[in-house]
Design brief:
alpha/beta, elongated, Rossmann fold, 6-stranded parallel sheet, 333 residues, 434 Repressor (Amino-terminal Domain)
């Protein structure tokens, strides 16, 4: 701004008035300032203007792959919580989960004068990118990684997987196979950890892990492999889309659910109770995740202010719930 003022032969205050469309600037002066702006290719820092003028009452969200149910439901939960707190939402999505993509999204939000940022970061690369965030912006992550450099809120993935596996073992199954989610997903890793821990606690050596993804297609392909075995009676799918594809593959091979094989999913998508048969799954409370994210972000935004001291830091871990429907039963006699 100083360079613009020097080139236009005016004060920095006059440049600020022109950029903010103040009426008390002569047309000739306005044109001279705008010409200097164009000549220098000057881009005003929206964040700085917002801080100078007070808070924008807008929260930014950085997200990835919002087509998937989990990130989309998390986004909705954050939006509801932000609205309840009197804040609007500005969303920046990234195609590639890496340092450049995350920081680029951060820059777009900063230029909109957002008061703080919530990063939906269930990938290892996203958590690593958080370490390069500028210190001037309040930030919170939706991530199961306790090593994140900012406060992190998440559903307890390990406990959710243990609930699923324990349920199947209590029905009498001798072991539980697992179709895992995407390799770079921290949520998938937590579910693998919980699956293994539940089996090992019962004195059972885990069977080979089936690598999948998050799609119904991945579940279908994994299901075709499992359907060829005669020692599979219980399967824990990494999410409900995987379970959907799995059910199709089992049906095509004449394997009845739950008479021959029991299936448990994860997420409790809205369609889960309408599948045939209705899917037993682990429910994640995404609205509660959103509320705790906003509570943590508000506390950080008001740090050092008397109001901030009165805001409690929420518990970072949201507990999941097992929803038992009709895809699970005791193993065949």
């Amino acid at each position: 701004m100083t360079d613009v003022a020097r080139l236009a032969g005016v004060s920095s205050q006059t440049v600020s008035r022109v950029l903010n469309e103040h009426p008390r600037v002569s047309p000739a002066t306005r044109e001279r300032v705008l010409q200097a702006v164009r000549q220098l290719d000057y881009h005003p820092n929206a964040l700085a203007r917002g801080l100078a003028g007070g808070r924008s009452r807008v929260v930014g969200v950085i997200s990835f792959n919002t087509v998937l149910y989990g990130p989309a439901a998390t986004m909705l939960g954050i939006e509801r919580a932000a609205h309840a707190s009197g804040y609007g939402l500005s969303i920046a999505t990234v195609e590639h989960v890496d340092r450049h993509g995350v920081l680029s999204a951060y820059g777009r939000l900063a230029d909109q004068s957002v008061d703080g940022v919530i990063v939906i970061a269930p990938q290892t690369a996203a958590v690593a990118a958080l370490r390069h965030f500028p210190s001037g912006m309040s930030a919170v992550a939706v991530s199961p990684d306790n090593c994140a450099p900012v406060p992190a809120i998440s559903v307890d993935q390990v406990t959710g997987a243990r609930l699923a596996v324990t349920h199947l073992l209590e029905l009498g199954h001798r072991t539980v196979w697992h179709i895992a989610g995407a390799d770079d997903s921290l949520d998938a890793r937590g579910r693998i950890e919980g699956w293994r821990a539940a089996l090992e606690q019962a004195g059972i050596a885990p069977p080979p892990l089936i690598r999948g993804g998050w799609s119904a297609r991945s579940g279908y392909r994994a299901g075709l492999k499992l359907a060829e075995r005669n020692d599979v009676t219980a399967i824990f799918a990494g999410n409900d889309q995987l379970a959907l594809g799995l059910l199709r593959a089992l049906a095509e091979h004449g394997i009845r659910v739950p008479d021959d094989v029991s299936v448990v999913g994860f997420d409790d998508i809205p369609e889960a109770e309408y599948l045939v048969p209705p899917l037993t799954t682990v429910r994640q409370d995404f609205d509660e995740v959103g509320r705790r994210c906003m509570a943590a972000l508000l506390r950080r935004m008001h740090a050092g202010h008397p109001k901030g001291a009165k805001l409690p830091m929420p518990d970072p871990t949201v507990q999941p719930t097992l929803i038992v429907r009709r895809t699970t039963a005791p193993p065949p006699g």
